Automatic annotation (TrEMBL), chain A:
HAMAP family the record matches: GatB (MF_00121)
Upper lineage: Bacteria, Pseudomonadati, Planctomycetota, Planctomycetia, Pirellulales
InterPro entries: Asn/Gln-tRNA_amidoTrfase_suB/E, Asn/Gln-tRNA_Trfase_suB/E_cat, Asn/Gln_amidotransferase, Asn/Gln_tRNA_amidoTrase-B-like, GatB, GatB_C_1, GatB_Yqey_C_2, Gln-tRNA_amidoTrfase_suB_CS
Family listed: Belongs to the GatB/GatE family. GatB subfamily.
Domain of life: Bacteria
Organism: Bythopirellula polymerisocia
Swiss-Prot/TrEMBL catalytic activity: L-glutamyl-tRNA(Gln) + L-glutamine + ATP + H2O = L-glutaminyl-tRNA(Gln) + L-glutamate + ADP + phosphate + H(+); L-aspartyl-tRNA(Asn) + L-glutamine + ATP + H2O = L-asparaginyl-tRNA(Asn) + L-glutamate + ADP + phosphate + 2 H(+)
Domain Asn/Gln amidotransferase, first and last residues per copy: 341-485
EC code: 6.3.5.-
Designated name of the protein: Aspartyl/glutamyl-tRNA(Asn/Gln) amidotransferase subunit B
GO BP term, example: glutaminyl-tRNAGln biosynthesis via transamidation
Automatic annotation (TrEMBL), chain B:
Ranges of residues in domain Amidase: 28-497
GO biological process: translation
Organism: Bythopirellula polymerisocia
Molecular-function annotations in GO: ATP binding; glutaminyl-tRNA synthase (glutamine-hydrolyzing) activity; transferase activity
Keyword Phosphoprotein applies: no
Gene3D superfamilies: Amidase signature (AS) domain
EC annotation from Swiss-Prot or TrEMBL: 6.3.5.7
Keywords: ATP-binding, Coiled coil, Ligase, Nucleotide-binding, Protein biosynthesis, Transferase
Pfam families hit by this protein: Amidase
Top EC class of this enzyme: ligase
Record has ATP-binding as a keyword: yes
Catalytic activity: L-glutamyl-tRNA(Gln) + L-glutamine + ATP + H2O = L-glutaminyl-tRNA(Gln) + L-glutamate + ADP + phosphate + H(+)
Annotated coiled-coil segments of the chain: 336-363
Protein name: Glutamyl-tRNA(Gln) amidotransferase subunit A
Amino acid sequence: MSQLYTTVIGLEVHVQLATKSKLFCRCSTQFGAEPNTQTCSVCLGLPGSLPVMNRTAFDLSLKTAVALNCVIPKFTKWDRKQYYYPDLPKAYQISQYDLPMSSAGWLEISDEKGSFEPKRVRITRAHLEEDAGKSIHDEAAGKADSEIDLNRTGTPLLEIVSEPDLSSSAEAKAYLQELKLLLTHIGVSDCNMQEGSLRVDANINLHIDTPEGKIATPIVEIKNMNSFRAVERALDYEAPRQFRVWQETGQKIGEAPKQTRGWDDSAGVTRGQRSKEESSDYRYFPDPDLVPVLVTDDQVAEARKSLGELPADLRNRFVQEYGLSAYDASVIVNQGQGVTNYFEQVARESGDAKSACKWVTQDILRLLKDGEQEINAIGVSAANLAGMISAVNDGKLPKPRAKEAFELMLSTGSTAQQAIQELGIEQVDESALVELCRELLDKNPRVVADVQSGKVQAIGALIGQAKKLNPNVDPGRFREICLELAMESSSSE
Amino acid sequence: MSSHSSLIESSATAQLELLMRGDLFSVELTQAYLDSIASRDANVGAFLRVEKDRALAQAASVDKRRQSNKPLGKLAGLPVAVKDVLCDQDTITTCASRMLENFRAPYDSTVVAKLKAADAILIGRTNMDEFAMGGSTENSAFQITRNPWDLERAPGGSSGGAAACVAADMAPLSIGTDTGGSIRQPAGLCGVVGLKPTYGRVSRFGLVAFASSLDQVGPLARTSQDAALLLETIAGHDLRDATSLDRPVPAYSQSVAEPLAGVRIGLVREHFAEGLDSEVASAVRDAVAVYESLGATVKEISLPHSKHAVATYYVIAPCEASSNLARYDGVHYGHRTDEAEMLEELAAERKALEAAKDEVGLSRLDSSLVRMYRKSRSEGFGAEVKRRIMLGTYALSAGYYDAYYLKALKVRRLIRQDFDEAFREVDLIAGPVTAQTAFKIGEMVDDPLSMYLVDLYTVSANLAGIPGISLPCGFDKSGLPIGLQLLAPPLEEERLLRGAHMYEQATDWHQRRPEI
C-alpha cells in the first residue's frame, strides 16, 4: 500500500425518532416551537413526576434495529446516566447501559462510482434514550447569561454505534447516506440534520505501519459536524493532522488521553475541546421508575414484516426485474422512496424500464437538484411520463420532439396526448415525406451532386429546410429517403 | 368542647355514617378537628400547615351538595391530613426541606387527586423527616413533632406528623409514606394503625421520590376499619406510574369485619433475638396468644436473610435517593443560593489565588455554575439528606457499584424469596414493629447508625414489596404504646386488615387516648 497509514473510523449517530410525543411523557416533539412551551412536569423533572414509556418510540426503535440486522434481546431495561447540566433537569438522562434493546447488527455500503469496495459495516448496538434540552450561550461581549430551552428534553433518540469498520471519509459518508436512506425509507425518522434529527459524532485514529510494526494513534472524538459534507471534511482534515502529531510526538494509543475535538466548518479545522482524562463517572443504575421491556418473538416478527422492501432489496430487484445497471439502480434508489416509487410507476406503466430509467436519472433528477423540489411537486407525474414514453414507442411522438413535449408537460402539467396536440405534432405519412424530399432535391441539384460524389453530410442542409416547411418531419427518416432518392437519380443517369 | 371531644374520638367510619345520614355536617366535624389542632398542635407540632380556610370551604361545599342530594365521593366530608410529600396542585409541598420551602406543584399527586375526587376534606399537611429520610421526624427542617403519649419523646418517622395527628385526634385519617417503615414505625410508636401497601398498589405519581423502588403511600387511622376505608380510596392502577399494579381494588371496608378463620400465623425466630425490649416481646407474644384464642394456629418460621435487611436497605435507598435528589440543583426550581453573594465570594477567592500566584488553586476554582450547584445544595439540604446522598453517590461510583448496589439487589431477591417460602406455610407473619417503644427527642441525633437500626423489623417488607400493618397491642410501664406488625403476601392487604380487625375486636388497646 502506498499510504503511510490506515484510517480507522467509527460513527455514533443519534437519530430522533418520528414520534408525535416524547419518550416518557405526552409533550409534543414538534420542532421550532417557542422555547419552553412543549414541556410538562415529567420532562421538566418536577418533584413527584414519573416517566411512562412511549410504546410507539419503542416500536420504531425495534423496527430500526431489525432493519439494521441487529440481535434483539428478549429483555431490555432503562438506566439512569447521571450528570449535572442546566439543560438536564432531572440531573440524569434515561438511557440504556448494559442491556440495550439491540446489538450486533450490520449495514452494507458501496459506492456506485467504485471509489471503495462494498463492505459490511458492523453495528455495535442501537439503544433508545431521551434527549437533553438545549443550552443557548450568548457569547456576545459582556453577556454571561445562558438560556435554556427544554422543548427538546425527553425527545426519543436512537443512538446507533458502529464498530470502527470505516477506513475513509468516503466510506463514512456512504455509511451515513445509506443509514439515512434506510431510516427515512422505513419511516422511523426524518433524519433532518438542520433540525437536529440526525447528529453524528466520529471516533477516528490511525494505524501506522512502522519498522517496529503497526501502531495505533490516540483516539479522537469529533463533534459539531452539521452535515455529511462536514463529516467528510472533518475526517479528511483529522487523519493527516493525527499523522503530523504522531510524527511530532510519537504518541500511541493509551499514551495520551482520548480527546474531544470540535469541527470548525468555516475555518475547516478541528479544535481541541476537553480531554477525557478522567472519564466521567455517570453512575449508571437501573431506573426504578420504569419497568424492564420484554420483547417477544412475535413483536420482532411483526417489526420485520412492517419493514417491507429495504433499499438494498430494491436495488437488487431493479437490476433483476427491469434490467437496470447496478449503477442506475443505485442512483434511483439512493434518491429515496419518492423517486423510487416514481421510477417504478413510469417503468410499469410504460413497459419500457430502460427509457424510464433514462428519463428519471437524467431529466427528473436534474429538476430535483435545480429546484430543490419534492418529487411529488414535479409537473410531470409518473403516469404522464409513462404516457410520453409510450407515445414515443408507439410512434405518436417523434423521439427528437420528446424533450419539447416533456418541457411543455412540465410547465402545464398536461398529459403527453395534450402536449402532442398543443405542439401540433402529427405523423407525416411516408408518401408526403417522399414528396417533400423530391421537391427539395430538385431545388438543390448541388446537394444531389455532393451526395453523389460521396459527401453524404450535404443532406444536412436539406433537413433544416424540411423542418421549416413541416416541423413534424422526422429528420432521421427524411435523411434516409433523401439519400435513397439522390443515389437513385445518380444510378439512373 | 365535650361534645367535640366525643365526636373527634369516634372512628372515621362512624363519622362518615353520621355525615351520610345528615346527622352531622362536615363543617361541624371539620371545625371540631380544627379546634383540636388549635388547642393541641402547639404542643405536638404534627402539622406544617393547616389549611383552615380551604378545609372549611370544601366542607361547606360537601354539606351543600349533600343537602341538594348531589352525588358525593366516598369520603365526603371526612377530614384527611396529608404528609407534606405528596403534591397538591398550586399549594406548597416542602418535604420538610428548605430546598422546597416555596415549591408549588402545578399538579396533584394521584393520591391527592383521589382524595379530592372522594370529597375528603384536606385539612392540612403533616410534618416529616426531610425527604422522608429518618425515623423520628427530627430531620424536619422546620419543626419538631412530639409524641402525643409523651411530649418529651419522638413520634417516630418519617411520617411522624401523620401518626401524631391521628393519635392526638387532630385528624381522623391521614396519609403517610413508607420507604423502610415510615408508616408502620410511627404508627407503632404513637399507638395508631398504619398500613404499608404492596409496592405498586398505590400510585406514586406526585409523591416526591425518596427511594423509588421502595416508596409506598398508605393510610394511618385509629382502626383497621378506618384504614380500610382510606386504602380503598387511594389504591388502584395509574397509567402515570409505570410501576403501579393493574389489579382490581377489593372493597376493603366491606370485608374487613370478616374474621380469618383458622388463620396460620408465623412468628419469625430472628425477630425475638437480642435487642428486643422484653416488654415489647411479651406484648407481641400476648397478641399472638389472643390470635390463638381466636382459632389461629401459630408456627415459628425463619427468614434467614432478614439479618441483612438493614444493610441492604441502606445501600439501595441511598443509591436511589442520591439520584432522585440530584434534580434539586437550584437551576429550575427550589432553593438557589444568593447569586450576587456567591459571585462576590468567587471573585474574592480568585483574587486571593491570583495574588498568591496559586496556579493549581486557580485551575481548581469552581466555575460560577458549579459553585451555584454546591452552595444551593449545601444550603438547601439538611445533614441526614446529605449523608444519604453521599452514601448513595459513593455506592454507585465506578468500582464500587458491583460490591454495593449489585450485591444489595441480589440480597434483596433472597429476602423476597425468604418471604415467598414462609408464606407457603403461614398466612400472616406477626412480630414487633420496633424493638423499643418511643425514644426521647434528641436521644439518637448524634448516632445515625442506631437510628438506622430502628428500621430493623420494617425494612424487609419494603425490600420484598409486600404489605404490612402496624396496630396497637399494648403499653409499656411508662405508658408508651407498643405496636404489633402483621405482614402478608403481595396484594393481600385484605388479609392484613381482616387480621388486624379481629384482634381489635378482642382487645381495647386501640381505644386508649393520650392525655394532652
